[in-house]
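Notes taken during the Thursday session

The instructor put the following on the board and asked us to keep it in front of us for the whole hour. The protein is JAB domain-containing protein. We were told not to look anything up and to reason only from what is written here. First, the residues (263 in total):
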Amino acid sequence: VISVDSVAGLATLRQEINLTAQKLPLDLIRKVTAWFKVVYQKYQSEAVGYLYYQAAMGEGQFVPPTQTATGASAKYEEAPRLEGWQVVGTIHSHGSMSAFHSGVDDRDEEFFDGVHVTIGRVDSVPEYSCSIVVQGKREIVDPSVLVDGMAPAEEIPSTWLATVKEQAPRGLELLFQVKADKLYAAYYEGKLSESRYKTDLRQLELEEAAERKAKAERKALAENHVPFLNKGGMRDVDEVYPRSFPLENRDWGKKKKGVHSGK
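Then, after some discussion, the predicted structure tokens were revealed:
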């Protein structure tokens, strides 16, 4: 048998993990979060608990095992056996850190099929990172996929998103800043879509960058070729020859046009 990445004529299937059980009740997540907050206030430590599911009733519950508070981690016992209930995952906290699945989490949960939730920032405004693990593969999912009562991003009204605007552009040269301000005003008032505004603003910034470059080049050229009168009231040789022009290549034998010879 020879393994292959694809077979000609067959569509490539994307690996996907979907939850088929009932979602976790929002009230349960609130209680677990409140417990994590109390544990952190008392021990400045992480904490962990097991998720159980009863298929016949379609119900879930959270059971924390006996554990030792150790700051940035938690040492805990195996999941206790509950008659009629199946262990289907874990919920653990990250204390004051953000919610993410760390390397330790990956190792602990690699062969632990089920739902795994990390709750971070329990010292302030909690954050949630949710995932489903199956046969060593982790699928990060939106909290709304696992928690009943949390709205997915798709349900957010577009009018709500439209109320949040980009910051006004600043720091452009005067002429371009005036144009940018007019562009932003149209965008802010809803007369211009965000995508069109970004495209037009980017074009304006490119034009300004080109103008800055051109100005810098003109300035460098002017500084390298500055005519002035010498002590005798005559224009300096650098009016005819730029200062960068090699001395040995200058035609000293020829009279410069418009320069008095003294005769």
